[in-house]
Amino acid sequence: MHTRWNKRLVGQAAVLILVNVMVDTVITAPLIVLPQMLDHFGTDQPAWLNAGALLAGAMWAPLLGKTADIHGKRKVLVWTLVLAGVGALVCMIAPGLWVFVLGRVVQGAAVASLFLTVGIVRDICETRIGMIVTGIVTTGNAVFGIAFPFLFETLSHAYGYRVVFVVSAVFAATGALLVRFFLPESVVRTPGRVDIAGALLLGGGIAAVVTYVSLGGDFGWTGAIPLPILLAGAVALACWVRLAHRTPDPVVDITKLSRPLVLTLGVVVLGTGAYQSMLQLFSLLADVSADEGLGYGLAAEGALGMLYGIPAIGIVLGGALAGALATRVGPAATLVAGVVLGLAGTLGLFAAVATLPLAVVCSFLLSLTAGALVTSGFNMASTLAPAERQGVVSSLVMVMIAIGSVILNFVGAAVLRSTRVDVGGAAANSATGVFGYIGIGTGAFVAAGVLAVLLVRAQRRASVASDPARAVDVA
């Protein structure tokens, strides 16, 4: 295992960063060509084109995490990348909307790649260097996010929206080959079998509940379509809980979900969800000029570049700093720091909705938050699980990231829709809706902060009550 930086570790980290660049081509790159896809498929439901991969990722993650613990993380990561490539090809040739959505579901397996790369880092690195490498691997791909919008925008104008999925398939194939030949296989395995039924019930139940949130704003929370989906999800989750207590080797062992781990997952779902919802809000603010008299607006030349380009740097910086600081103060403390930065950035938006320079500062603070929360969440979860359960525990962090991002984005969008005003015969988001949106993000960060403080206190009590060498192993 690596105890310090060396050429081999640098090469392995580069391969893992490339894998996470591929994840970006699945999650964020399609947003750049979203208007073209909406026009091509003749739909006004961007959620099915945009959030489908994240929803599928939440469904895939528990199954792939358990499989990785049993059969090896490298093997599962290779097959995950192959699935993502196949899904990209299906999206590329899809003749209609629902075939495209099916492709996005398959491609959503790529979301699992992120937590598998974290698991591999923990396999090849000792804890101290592993925390730093985790921060670099989980956020280093954001550097490419600076150039990707310009690249995909240019290519899509020349070759159409399909070029995004061609690039994604190429990244997936390249990543699969590099992972297979340049990374070692896990030496720690968990004996047992994969609980397929439990994985399907858990993943399907989560996907159904999140889908209900995504559809409720458009079709009504008690509508004929969303409500049955919610009920089906609730039944699936109830069946999963019952099965988990009866199965000797469940996909997620509920009895081993320690209090610190539950608190960590709560911080991740609230914190990353709040950040992602603010990111969505920036695009809406940048589309309106302050001169329109709506009480907000950041439209100006280069506004989007400043609001989205600078965060790419902040995400990398936040992840690297969180990883380095975690070796000194612990990942629980860096989780608190990340939440505090996010709360400061979100509160600042109340005054920055019509002032671009201040909004850029808030955007940078929120990007630091994103890097710190993702890195610290994975680091914290890794310290709370034995080696043979790293895949499952890391998959739960990924599920929380996906759920938080989707739910708070759709809740915020529902608030904006319900408070629209008529301006010159056209509907526009009101200042009330925008400030309400920010208020939801603020509330999420406050709740995440409370959970983070409870986590720190729980860790301190565990350190006092146990042997110092085992203070972090409270799972």
What does the main sheet amount to?
2 strands, antiparallel
Assign an overall shape. globular
Write the CATH fold name of the largest domain.
Answer: Growth Hormone, Chain: A
Helix-strand topology string = HHHHHHHHHHHHHHHHHHEEH
How large is the radius of gyration?
21 Å
- The N- to C-terminal Cα distance equals 23 Å
Structure commentary:
Residues 468-475 have low confidence and may be disordered. It is globular, with a radius of gyration of 21 Å. It has helices spanning 7-27, 29-32, 34-41, 46-50, 52-71, 73-93, 97-107, 111-124, 127-139, 148-159, 162-182, 196-219, 226-246, 259-285, 303-329, 331-352, 356-383, 390-418, 431-465, and strands spanning 421-423, 426-428. It is built from 19 helices and two strands. The chain has a two-stranded antiparallel ribbon with strand order 1-2. A hairpin with a 2-residue loop joins β1 and β2. The chain has 475 residues and is an all-alpha fold. 76% of the residues lie in helices and 1% in strands. The two termini are 23 Å apart. InterPro entries: MFS, MFS_dom, MFS_trans_sf. One of its GO terms (cellular component) is plasma membrane.
